Amino acid sequence: MPLVMKLPVLEREVLLTFLLALGLVSVNFWLQGRVGINFSDEGFLWYGAAQTVAGQVPVRDFQSYDPGRYYWIDLWSPVFGTGLVGVRLAVAVFHLGGVFLGLLVVRQVVSSWWGRGIVGILLIAWMFPYYKIFESTIAIAAVYVGVCLLECPSRRRHFLAGVFVGGATFFGRNLGLYSFLAGVLLIAFSHLRIQREAALSRLGAWGLGIGVGSLPLLLMALVLPGFAQAFLESVLWLVQLGATNLPLPVPWPWSGRHQNYVAGDRLAFLMVEVGFVVVPLFFLIAGYLLVRYPLVDRQRQSVLVASACVGVWYLQHAFSRADLAHLAQSLPPFLLGVVALPTFVGARENSWLNRLLFGGLVVLTIGPVYLASSFVRVCYLTPCVPYEVQGERLWIRPAERDLIERLRRIVLERVQPAEGIFIAPHWPTVYRVLQRPSPTWQIYFLFPERLDRQEAIIADLQKNNVRWVILGDVTLDRREDLRFRHTHSFVWLFLMRNFTPVEITGLPSGYQLLRKKD
Question: What are the start-end ranges of the E strands in 251-340?
Answer without folding.
Answer: none
